[in-house]
């Protein structure tokens, strides 16, 4: 008998209202353009269930899509974005003006150079991985759409690809970027593969 196959479509939220800025826990809704980006990204897709971050830029679209398709929508609290601490709500230019080289250091090695009072990357990775394992366990054989954040998706892809934690930000997802993961449940364990990557806009 063929091994059960689970497919996960990872979808980053669209453009939020308020323009580009650090928004980990800042809970902005989607802009009209952001809604349109996600509608285009999900057109023609077929899933058995939807899972999303609790933040508005993910949850509000996910709940509408699930209701339109007659699907369950589960809010996964641990899929929320990393907290950027004192950088929350600031633009990159504002962070550079106030903190100098700290921003470049963070992008190059987020483990060694976290934002001040921000969530340590190892803690962020651990909570996303815990939620990921829960999702794998209760989605066997299903097609699942996960609406989440660039950082959350980077953690999931890092895990699948076996990348060092310090290289996490080398996986960049634009607004409405997508990745498809395939999990084969075999007698030898779960085999994971990245099937498709569309970085979005």
From TrEMBL:
Transmembrane segment boundaries: none
Domain of life: Bacteria
Record-linked PANTHER family: BROAD-SPECIFICITY PHOSPHATASE YOR283W-RELATED (PTHR48100), HISTIDINE PHOSPHATASE FAMILY PROTEIN-RELATED (PTHR48100:SF1)
Database matches in InterPro entries: His_Pase_superF_clade-1 (IPR013078), His_PPase_superfam (IPR029033), PGM_Phosphatase (IPR050275)
Gene Ontology CC terms, in alphabetical order: cytoplasm
Gene3D superfamilies, sorted: Phosphoglycerate mutase-like (3.40.50.1240)
Single GO molecular function: phosphatase activity
Annotated site, Transition state stabilizer, chain positions: 149
One Pfam family linked to the record: His_Phos_1
Protein name: Phosphoglycerate kinase
């Amino acid at each position: 008998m063929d091994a059960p196959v689970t497919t996960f479509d990872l979808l980053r939220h669209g453009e939020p209202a308020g323009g580009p800025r650090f928004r980990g826990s800042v809970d902005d809704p989607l802009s009209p353009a952001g809604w349109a980006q996600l509608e285009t990204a999900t057109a023609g897709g077929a899933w058995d269930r939807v899972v999303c971050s609790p933040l508005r830029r993910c949850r509000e679209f996910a709940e509408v899509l699930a209701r339109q398709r007659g699907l369950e929508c589960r809010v996964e609290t641990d899929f929320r974005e990393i907290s950027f601490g004192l950088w929350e709500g600031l633009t990159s230019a504002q962070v550079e003006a106030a903190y100098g080289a700290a921003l470049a250091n963070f992008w190059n090695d987020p483990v060694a150079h976290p934002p001040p009072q921000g969530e340590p990357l190892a803690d962020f990775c651990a909570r996303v991985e815990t939620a990921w394992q829960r999702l794998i366990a209760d989605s066997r054989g299903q097609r699942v759409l996960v609406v989440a954040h660039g950082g959350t998706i980077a953690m999931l892809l890092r895990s699948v690809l076996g990348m060092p934690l310090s290289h996490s930000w080398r996986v960049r997802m634009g607004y409405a970027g997508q990745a498809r993961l395939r999990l084969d449940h075999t007698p030898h364990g779960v085999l994971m593969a990245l099937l498709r990557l569309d970085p979005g806009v």
